[in-house]
Amino acid sequence: MSLADFFTPILTQEFSSGVDFYTSQFGKIIQANEDSFPDLEDAEKKPHIALLGVEEDRASVQNGGAKKSPNAVRKHFYNLYQGDYDVRIGDLGNIQAGATIQDTYIALKTVVEELVKQDILPVIIGGGQDLTFAQYTGYEGLEQRVEVAVVDARFDLDQDHVENTPLNSNTYLNHIILHQPDYLFNLSNLAYQTYLVSKESINMYDKLFFSTMRIGMMAGQLDQAEPLIRAADMVSFDIGAIRASEAPGNANANPNGLYGDEACQLARYAGMSDKCSSIGFYEYNPTFDPMGHTGSLVAQMIWCFVDGYYSRKNDTPVIPKSAYIIYRTTLKNEDYELIFVKSKKSDRWWMQVPYFGSRSVNERYYWVPCRYEDYQQAVGGDMPDLWWKTHQKLQ
Q1: Which residues contact 226 (CB under 8 A, 6 or more apart)?
Q2: Among 81, 155, 276, 324, which lies 20 to 30 A Cα-Cα from 334?
């Protein structure tokens, strides 16, 4: 079966604000599934990034209408101008809601898996955030551990009924955490608001050594969230994490949350990550967006992701040591020597964490993205919390 069988074509002219698109507008550049499906096989022609819409909102809790978001976002994105780089973006069209919601999940899983295998990065425009589960299961056949970053005001899990919970936009994390086979290495929840999250859920994250960052920790210092996003293989962005005054197009919008420019910066961090191989933007509902402001913001977030993608430094620590500055420090009890590296290309930091119980000559390590503050903490003789959590998961 060809991937084209999962999609319905689009009409790009419906997205133009004028008679036609200008030369450097995305509408002129994108290889769209209009007259023919984008070529995904030819190495010289296939897109680097593939846009795809999912017209599914049956499990989007109290946000019916989110299925209309893909084309609403395209109306803004197609009129944006590319940056100072050559882009290869394909628009595959829309996955329509299946006869059952499971059919939709299977279609999205299959598409994500095939695109990632072909080194094409899917940018998913939902639809409900329950589609994150289908995005995640797309990695099941890739034989790798997966790190997930979720930008959301809440933790979308049912703490009281962990197992046998129906899958929807408020419980999809239950299904990711309990999914078998288990290939989840880490889950990060960014921009959560404490009064919207139970203490039991936060305690569960701590017990599982997952990562969290509340919105207050990000205010005025958004770069604190960058390492968590840089560590992720896939990113899921709930538009409800953005405050209602900036993004009213969501039935569950909150008075507090991220500002629009902060949401764009987080999307750019994801684009710049060498590791990120898929991203989804979910829960935008055009029904609550008569002026199109939220659709325009989502389009700009995707633009920032694309801009970050074409600004990648390819400096994850697997290349020659000459590309890095290496720092070593010993803790107060001298149990461990902690090793940090800083990229000369981007000034970004990583921390070396050994696999649990590994004391052999050929000791294996995991490079975890970190902050300069983690290095400062180690210099002060204290173990960074990020080191300990990562070490516990490397069993």
Answers
A1: 269, 348, 369, 371
A2: 324
Tens-place pLDDT, residues 228-242: 999 999 999 999 999
Determine the longest span between alpha carbons in the chain, in angstroms: 70
Region of 241 (left: φ > 0; alpha: ψ -120 to 50; beta: rest) is alpha
Using alpha carbons only, what angle is made at residue 70 by residues 290 and 234, rounded to the nearest 5 degrees?
Answer: 125
Q: Which two tokens stand for residue 161?
A: 């009924």
Residues 6+ apart with CB under 8 A from 91: 10, 12, 30, 31, 32, 33, 38, 50, 51, 52, 74
pLDDT at residue 392 greater than cutoff 70? yes
What is the 3-state secondary structure of the chain? CCHHHHCECCCHHHHCCCCCCCCCEHHHHCEEECCECCCCCCCCCCCCEEEEEEECCCCCCCCCCHHHHHHHHHHHHCCCECCCCCCCEEEEEEEECCCCHHHHHHHHHHHHHHHHHCCCEEEEECCCCCHHHHHHHCCHHHCCCEEEEEECCCCCCCCCCCCCCCCCCCCHHHHHHHCCCCCEEEEEEEEECHHHCCHHHHHHHHHCCCEEEEHHHHCCCHHHHHHHHHCCCEEEEEHHHECCCCCCCCCCCCCCCECHHHHHHHHHHHHHCCCCCEEEEECCCHHHCCCCHHHHHHHHHHHHHHHHHCCCCCCCCCCCHHHEEEEEEECCCCCCEEEEEEECCCCCEEEEEECCCCCCCCCCEEEEEECHHHHHHHHCCCCCHHHHHHHHHCC
Quote the tokens at residue 284. Answer: 């935008």
Looking at residue 170, its amino acid is N
Please tell me the predicted confidence (pLDDT) of residue 18. 75
pLDDT tens, position by position, 235-270: 999 999 999 999 999 999 999 999 999 999 999 999
Q: Are 277 and 312 in contact (CB under 8 A)?
A: no
Q: Cα(24)–Cα(232) distance, rounded to whole angstroms?
A: 31
Q: Report the candidate in 195, 277, 281 with the shortest Cα–Cα distance to residue 238.
A: 281
Report pTM.
0.95
**For strand 31-32 and strand 184-192, is the pairing parallel, antiparallel, or unpaired?**
unpaired
* Number of C-beta neighbours around residue 371 at 10 A: 20
